[in-house]
Amino acid sequence: MGRSSRSSASSSLSSSKWRYCNPAYYLKRPKRLALLFFVFVCASFLVWDRQTLVREHEVEVDKLSEEVNQLKLMLEELKSTHGDEDSSVSGKSKLTSKVLPDDPVDIHRREKVKDAMIHAWSSYEKYAWGHDELQPQTKDGVDSFGGLGATLIDSLDTLYIMGLDEQFQRAREWVATSLDFNKDYDASVFETTIRVVGGLLSAYDLSGDKVFLDKAKDIADRLLPAWDTPTGIPYNIINLENGNPHNPGWTGGSSILADSGTEQLEFFALSQRTGDQKYHQKAERVILELNKTFPADGLLPIYISPDSGTGSSSTITFGAMGDSFYEYLLKVWIQGNKTGAVKLYRDMWEKSMKGLVSLVRRSTPSSFTYICEKSGDWLTDKMDELACFAPGMLALGSAGYEPAESERILSLAEELAWTCYNFYQSTPTKLAGENYFFRSGEDMSVGTSWNILRPETVESLFYLWRLTGNKTYQEWGWNIFQAFEKNSRVEGGYVGLKDVNTGIKDNMMQSFFLAETLKYLYLLFSPTSVISLDEWVFNTEAHPLRIVKHQDGQMNAQTDDKITRSRGRKEGQW
Ligand code: DMJ
């Protein structure tokens, strides 16, 4: 092909490329014009549609960010009114009564306490499931309370409060399917009431699950024959299968004061929740009987005759065998909404506090305040760690006095708490012994030197912190917790110490370590709205029982339905 023919072919190709831009091309071809128009309309619609969508999204995004801002403001407002709450506590909102803000240190500390609970509980699950208590060194279970799953029941509410839901559910299943009270076992009426009845009622109040109430009723019914005595003051031991009651041989036939006067909270609560008054009547009769001969100083000896209702010449103490009788006088008054119906309890308690004040002495040289024990007219300068519940009790009851007295009682509570804290600080392990002697010029010296993971001091620190807002009590509690971590934590759980001076360990994880010690420590670092003291009263094993608000302010039995409504679980409250 020659040069001229190649050039004419290329010019015709180029003209065919540009012909689509020439309007005349389309005028001659109407179908193509229509197609072009259609493509143009579609493209324009697409662009318009995208732009509208973008505009709509922008409006939506603006609206949402405005809502986010409003929610942030509401959250801030809620935080400043109620204190910030850790949703991991249970994933539920809680009633609030006091304004004490949460802070990062508290959050960190309660997580550490929760870790401790997880360690204690999972060790129990692994090595002692269904038994009363775990022996962490030998990694096995022991049935110290007749095989009623004491640790499991004692732990229910702690698990619930800490938001350990899976663990709680596993324990709930065991209660529903394996807990059997029909045992040929001579049980302590006191221990069974405070741990088992109290633990089940608390689990019921928190979860609303009726299985706990049914079981509480079952065991309480088995305990009831213990009150069938001439005075209504109970025998302290009963066979769970055949209902035969008796007192321990070593009391010489007497009933023990604390064992006989520490069932009122649980039995009153049970009557309220079942509508059956019999529990209330049995427990109240004890107090009415003791009130007949109640002395002006409100102090009773630890041995009481169930036949005559009078005390024998035995020790008066706020420690072992006396302690929780005094505690329950105050707490029944709180449980009963502080009304006329329960005024007797407050009056008796105030008398007893006069008695307590008469037993108070100060050590030399450091002026530690302590509560003596009394035998006849003789005072012994000895105080049990068990009596360290008293600072908390005094603080809790101080509000019912006129202002000047209230201040005096609160300040006594604070002095006693300082002494109890020093029971811990004065030993090489920083854990308290079982009791202390105060000798002139020597301040405190440990007597019985074991530590069995008891809760009383941290219990008092919890009340004092709640009621005064003084963070010093949290610091003291944290120091005690660290000493437990250092000395008592072992691979298989937590153990007590045979001797707080040497740190030699024992082989027992007491159920009250999970029920009380860890619970009070956790609450010490939680917002005050978590188990508010306006809504709950703790039994002596630290099981919170909901205070039922009565319309008429009376302590009458309520139906289950009324309780459920007053519990307010539907609103997700505690
Ligand atoms: C618990 O069982 C109760 O707190 C009781 O009132 C006293 N003893 C233990 C804890 O130390």
Give a verbal description of the structure.
The protein has 574 residues and is mainly α. The chain is 52% helix and 9% strand. It has helices at 3-18, 23-27, 30-82, 104-128, 150-161, 165-178, 189-207, 210-223, 257-260, 264-274, 278-292, 323-335, 343-358, 390-398, 403-425, 456-468, 472-488, 511-524, 560-567; strands spanning 133-135, 140-142, 186-188, 237-239, 245-246, 255-256, 303-304, 360-362, 369-371, 373-375, 378-380, 382-384, 435-438, 444-446, 489-490, 493-494, 536-538, 544-546. The strands form eight sheets. The chain has a three-stranded antiparallel β-sheet. Strands 12-13-14 form a three-stranded antiparallel β-sheet, with no helix packed on it. It has a two-stranded antiparallel ribbon with strand order 1-2. Residues 1-14, 68-74, 76-98 and 552-574 have low confidence and may be disordered. Bound molecules: 1-deoxymannojirimycin. Residues 194, 324, 386, 454-455, 512, 516, 540-541 line the site of 1-deoxymannojirimycin (DMJ). 1-deoxymannojirimycin binds at residues 194, 324, 386, 454-455, 512, 516, 540-541.
* Distance between the ends: 100 Å
Give me the Rg, rounded: 35 Å
Number of helices: 19
Uncertain segments of ≥5 residues (pLDDT<50)?
A: 1-14, 68-74, 76-98, 552-574
Structural class: mainly alpha
Largest sheet descriptor: 3 strands, antiparallel
Per DSSP E runs of 2 or more residues, the count of β-strands stands at 18
- Give the strand order, joined by hyphens, for the main sheet: 3-4-5
Give the CA-based shape.
elongated
- Into which percent range does the helicity of residues fall? 40-55%
Mean pLDDT: 88
GO molecular function: calcium ion binding; mannosyl-oligosaccharide 1,2-alpha-mannosidase activity
Cofactor: Mg(2+); Mn(2+); Ca(2+)
Family: Belongs to the glycosyl hydrolase 47 family.
Enzyme class: hydrolase
